[in-house]
Amino acid sequence: MIDPKDTECKNLVLSIKLMAKHLDGMADTFEIAEIKKMLNYILKAENIFVMGAGRSGLVGKAFAMRLMHLGFSVYVVGETTTPAVKKEDVVIGISGSGETRSIVDLGKIAKEIGSTLIAVTSNKDSTIVDISDNVVLIPGRIKDNGGGYLERHMRGDYRNLTPLGTSFEISSLVFFDAMIAELISIMGVSEDDLKSRHTTLE
């Protein structure tokens, strides 16, 4: 049992500071041309489909919610009410490794249909990148194979204490919220416009 009075929770504090430092430098790494391309695809899309597995899927749902607030026709892949994808639609695949089997397989189907596929990933040398029309690279460590997190901890390597793909997921969440801010500016809408579409069934 940990006595709260006797611990400084050093790993917790250090992890927060490392993530904050990572996020602070993230904006300087983006290829702005690819972000503009993504914005144009979103603005022109008939429907937008967002997909991701696990925690990346939760990040995708958060982005889809904000797109809905902006008035876009948007769906989360895998939900029972999600319609068929058409050629005029945009599919956004979120995968830190770019090799998540379900996301890669669904991406291939999207391309077979003829829709636009956008990849948001940390791995530029991945399958999802190879098949996508538009790629946004998010800096962040992808998942370890095996016990990498514990091994780093035992060796005293505290450069990144976030387990699994956490740095990618947090970074992509911040990126998507920043995209919403950019879309708000482009579309000339207000926060009140977003609030008007927020669910009342809570």
From TrEMBL:
Q: Which Gene3D superfamilies match?
A: Glucose-6-phosphate isomerase like protein, domain 1
Which superkingdom does the taxonomy of this entry point to?
Answer: Archaea
Matching SUPFAM superfamilies: SIS domain
Report domain SIS positions: 38-189
What InterPro entries has UniProt attached to this entry?
PHI/rmpB, SIS_dom, SIS_dom_sf
Cite the Pfam families for this sequence: SIS
What keywords sit in the KW lines?
Isomerase
Q: Read off the CDD domains from this record.
A: SIS_PHI
A Gene Ontology MF term for this entry?
Answer: isomerase activity
Biological processes per GO annotation:
carbohydrate derivative metabolic process
Q: Is Isomerase found in the keyword set?
A: yes
Is-annotated flag, keyword Cytoplasm?
Answer: no
Family, according to the entry, reads as follows: Belongs to the SIS family. PHI subfamily.
Q: What is this protein called?
A: 6-phospho-3-hexuloisomerase
Question: What organism is listed for this UniProt entry?
Answer: Methanosalsum natronophilum
